[in-house]
Structures are given as C-alpha cells and as structure tokens.
C-alpha cells in the first residue's frame, strides 16, 4: 500500500483564488483563474511534473513552523538554520472597497530576515493547464510573464528578474516580495505589498470579530469559520466543497474525486453554519446563486462556480496522483445523479434565511416562494423513488432512508414557509403529506430486530447520515429507537474511535477510511441524547487529528491517523462548527451558565 503523504498544508485565499502552501514553503496547489480552473501548481498530485513555487536554502527544501496569523487567513512560516532564520508570509490580498472588499486574482509572498545571514533561491516552476501543455516563461523588464493555456500570469518582485529566472542564490538582507497575478500585472512595489498585507490582516480581524463563537472550543470554531469563508467564491456566491481534486478517500483505491464545484447540499450546510455564527452575507449571496441556477432548468446536485453545469468527468493521465495514487480526475459524474435529499437541504436553507430577523427581504421574499413550491412538489413526487443517496453511489439505486427523510424535511418545512406566505391551504395539504411520510420513515426506516435506523427502508445496514435524524426534527434525540441506534452505530461503524459512513460494499468495494463529518455528527448526536461527557470526549478525539494549522480533509485513515480525501473539506468544518455549538449550548445549560457573566 502506498505511504500516505502528509496533508499539513495551510490554505490561503480571498474569495477569488485558493492555494495550498506546505511547511517547506512550496505552493503545491493553485488553480487559476477560478477555484475550478486548471492548475498552475499541482505538485500535490505529481511531485515531478505538477509544478511548484518554493523557496530553497542551499538549493534544497527546508521545513519551517507554520501558523496562521491570529484570526486571519494569512500564513506565516518561520525557518531556523545554523546560518540564520527567516520568515515567509503568504496571503491573497483582501482589500477594503466601499462597504465590501476587492479580491484580486493575486497572491503575495513576503520574505523577511529574522537573524544571521541567510542565502536563498526562488524555484518558480508553473505548469499551466494541469501540466498538459507547454508553459513558457518570459523575462520582461519588471516581471516574469507566464504564457500558455490558462495564462497569462505575471510574477513581480523586488529581486532582479534574472535571479528568479536563473534560480540564483541571493542574500536575504532585507524584505523581498513575490507577487503572482492573473491576467494583468499591476505595478507592485515592496511598500505596496506590505500595505496590502496590513489591509488584509485588518480585514480578516474585522471579519473574525463579528463571529458569535460558542464557549466550547471557540478557537477551533473560528478557524473552521475562516476556512469556510475561503470556500465562498466572491464573484457569484457559489460555495465549493473542497479546494482540491483527486486526493483519495483511501490509498490503493479508485476513490478519487474532483470537489472543486458547488454541491448545493454542501453549500446549504455551509450557509447555515456561518449563519449560526452571525455571518449572513454568504447566505444572501448563495440564495442569489441558487435562484440563478434554479431558473436555468432542473436542479442538479452540483454546478460550476459560475452556475453552469460542471465539466464532464475525465481522467488526466499525465499526473501520477497524490502519493503516486491515481486516477486524477477533473469534473464529476455526480452532476448527472439523482440525489433526492437535495430538496430538503435547500428548503432548510431558504427557511432559516427567510425567517432570520436580521435579514430584510421585503417584497423579495415573495420571489422565493415559487422555488419553495417547486422543491416541495418535487420532494412529494420523488420521496418514494430510488436515488443514489447522499454518498453518491454510482450504480446502487435504492430508496435511501436519509434521502426520504430529507424529502420529508422539504415537505414539512415547506408547509411552514407556505404559512408564512399566507398559503394556508397549501400549508395544510403539505403538512398532511409530511405526517404520512414521517410514519413511513419511522416504521420502515428502523429495523427493530437490529436495533438501529437503516441505510435503506426495510434495510439491514447502518448509515451514519441517520445520526442527523433528531437534528432534522424527525424524532426526539432521546427516543428509544435513536438511543439504540447510537449504541449500535458506536459498535458497528466506528474504527479507531472514529465514525465511518457505512461498512457495506459500494461500487468500489468495502470502504476502509473514516469520514470525519460523521464523527462530528456522532459527537453532536451524543450531546443531544444527553450523553454530554461522551460527546466532549468524541469531539476532542476528532480534533486531535486536525493538521498543525487546524484544518481537516474529508477522511482519516484509522490505521495511521493520516488525513485523506480532498482538502480542506468544507463539510468537515461545518460538522465541527455545528457540533461545537450544540455541545456548548447543552454544557452551558447543564452547568447553569445561562446568565450574563455566569
């Protein structure tokens, strides 16, 4: 089995670009001009031919100590050697502009000496279009121009251009900036780069100050919120599932997927997590994105971040894959799947945003009801039909319990919205249908002999998505059926103290990795069931697997504790936020901390 490389990277971004930076200084993943565009640097997926942007000492990489500047998405990596020490600041400018921000497609790297005498060199090796075509680098009088499919890019610096082109060593005796931009080369100077760092840091501080954090694990929650913010595309309001493609869910398998798109389900969960922390702008922008894609035709599970269907799935044969593990995919075939939980998540998103008193919609509210009605009517029709489930099975069409439960959510919450819009007859009719659906779910979704809710109606397999049933309101978390499910899942679905999605075989055989959001669902479910100490224990155990800067991928390999799956995974950080808030509220109530200053 191939060794699992470390996902110990930091993520930088500004709503227009995302880049992964290794503690060695290497930018190992960057796609331009959009999150779902072709890669410029992809060493994460091919150490030899993917492309990289790094700082070398004596011609070699060295590992530093990486940390985010407090309450920001600005990365600082400090390097200490016998000759001296230095630091690298990586950020994507996020600059004040009126009541909002300007987010240029640009990243900046600042090198600063800290002591001694350090000699460094720059290895700037872009490989445009996933390394598939030729990349040319031209030395202009004040910058480097990168030409090829997906270009042009411009690298500006206060180093002599010939030093970068020739990878020549230089003495770091003062600050050096390296600014990489797409499309055009702004006239950058060292003082401007430093000023943009100050503005960006201040902007992130202001954003963080408006987060309403729980008392339980507030630092982890804030880091997760900052991570989620980076997944929101400034131009359209789309929210992507993850920054990367093709990091396998398990080594030695073909479970490699492209997550750089807007899954409507995942985006709805992100919107709600940020709303619970006091950030509503992302939700407002996503609603606009949702209306645009909904009015364009039948809803699909995922879209490109411009609102168009994602690219067809294809395999890149020129990249060897993460740790040499392929295939490397771009595009995602799930765009054509039937995922019937979708209506429930979207109705939930609409309901929570439309009834939040902090948002003033006025007459615009009425423009959302046709979409609500469409989602509810689709849920009524599709509830009894087979689909591919939240887990996107490629060929296993079944009547999945979670999908059916989310159809119930769409109908039940849709009835509440119909009442809000003075559609009393619709509200009554939908609520009657929802009541019948709830009966079906509780009768056929629970296997009394096995003692747990099952993956499919009348089924036999456990499925961790059903840990959400009390959160959705389908039954009380202290209902004996759910308490029994909790016990059974703890025995049947855990590996190394972490929760798997399911154990039964799917299109690619039996799964082996634990799915990190499921572990957070487990912690939250334990808290709701009144098992608070156990919930805290599970939560803290999961947090021990975060990478050194507090980020999570999709999966954890239970044998090694290494992160697997696309990274960082927005869904995982949503699970952390929701579990922390729930645990915090229940701990405060239990311990009497329900008054100011208590």
TrEMBL record:
Domain GH15-like residue range list: 220-580
Domain of life: Bacteria
Protein name according to UniProt: Glucoamylase
UniProt domain Trehalase-like N-terminal: residue ranges: 8-156
SUPFAM superfamilies the UniProt entry points to: Six-hairpin glycosidases
Segments passing through the bilayer: none
InterPro entries to which the protein is assigned, alphabetical: 6-hairpin_glycosidase_sf, 6hp_glycosidase-like_sf, GH15-like, Trehalase-like_N
């Amino acid at each position: 089995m191939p060794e699992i490389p470390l996902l110990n990277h930091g993520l930088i971004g500004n709503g227009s670009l995302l880049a992964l930076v290794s503690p060695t200084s290497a930018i190992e993943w960057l796609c331009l001009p959009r999150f779902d565009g072709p890669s410029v640097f992809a060493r994460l997926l091919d150490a030899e031919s993917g492309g990289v942007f790094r700082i070398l000492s004596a011609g070699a990489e060295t590992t530093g100590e990486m940390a985010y500047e407090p309450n920001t998405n600005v990365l600082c990596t400090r390097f200490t050697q016998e000759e001296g020490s230095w630091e690298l600041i990586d950020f994507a400018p996020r600059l004040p502009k009126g009541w909002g921000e300007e987010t240029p497609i640009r990243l900046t790297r600042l090198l600063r000496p800290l002591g001694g005498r350090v000699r460094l060199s720059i290895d700037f090796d872009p490989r445009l279009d996933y390394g598939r075509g030729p990349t040319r680098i031209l030395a202009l009088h004040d910058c480097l121009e990168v030409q090829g499919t997906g270009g042009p890019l411009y690298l500006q610096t206060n180093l002599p251009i010939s030093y970068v082109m020739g990878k020549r060593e230089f003495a770091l005796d003062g600050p050096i900036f390296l600014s990489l931009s797409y499309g055009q080369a702004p006239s950058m100077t060292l003082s401007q780069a430093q000023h943009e760092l100050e503005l960006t840091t201040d902007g992130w501080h202001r954003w963080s100050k408006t987060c309403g954090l729980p008392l339980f694990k507030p630092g982890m929650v804030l880091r997760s919120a900052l991570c989620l913010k980076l997944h929101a595309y400034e131009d359209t309001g789309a929210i992507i599932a993850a920054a990367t493609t093709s990091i396998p869910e398990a080594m030695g398998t073909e479970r490699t997927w492209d997550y750089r798109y807007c899954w409507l389900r995942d985006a709805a969960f992100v919107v709600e997590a940020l709303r619970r922390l006091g950030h509503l702008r992302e939700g407002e922008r996503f609603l606009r994105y949702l209306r645009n894609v909904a009015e364009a035709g039948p809803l699909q599970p995922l879209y490109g971040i411009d609102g168009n269907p994602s690219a067809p799935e294809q395999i890149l044969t020129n990249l060897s894959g993460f740790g040499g593990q392929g295939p490397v995919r771009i595009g995602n075939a799930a765009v054509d799947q039937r995922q019937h939980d979708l209506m429930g998540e979207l109705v939930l998103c609409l309901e929570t945003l439309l009834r939040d008193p902090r948002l003033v919609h006025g007459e615009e509210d009425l423009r959302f009801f046709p979409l609500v009605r469409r989602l509810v009517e689709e849920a009524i029709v599709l509830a009894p039909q087979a689909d591919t489930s939240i887990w996107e099975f490629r060929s296993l069409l079944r009547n999945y319990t979670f999908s059916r439960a989310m159809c119930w959510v769409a109908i039940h919450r849709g009835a509440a919205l119909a009442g809000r819009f003075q559609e009393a007859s619709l509200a009554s009719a939908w609520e009657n249908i929802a009541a019948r659906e709830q009966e079906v779910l509780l009768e056929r979704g629970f296997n009394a002999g096995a003692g747990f809710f099952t993956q499919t109606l009348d089924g036999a397999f456990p499925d961790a998505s059903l840990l959400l049933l009390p959160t959705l309101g389908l039954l009380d978390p202290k209902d004996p059926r759910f308490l029994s499910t909790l016990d059974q899942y703890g025995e049947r679905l855990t590996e190394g103290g972490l929760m798997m999605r399911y154990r039964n075989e799917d299109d690619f055989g039996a799964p082996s990795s634990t799915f990190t959001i499921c572990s957070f669902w487990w912690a939250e479910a334990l808290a709701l069931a009144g098992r608070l100490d156990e919930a805290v224990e599970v939560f803290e155990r999961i947090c021990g697997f975060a990478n050194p800067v507090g980020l999570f991928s999709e999966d954890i390999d239970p044998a090694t504790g290494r992160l697997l799956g696309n990274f960082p995974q927005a869904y995982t950080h949503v699970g952390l936020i929701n579990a922390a808030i729930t645990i915090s509220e229940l701990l405060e109530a239990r311990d009497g901390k329900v008054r100011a200053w208590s």
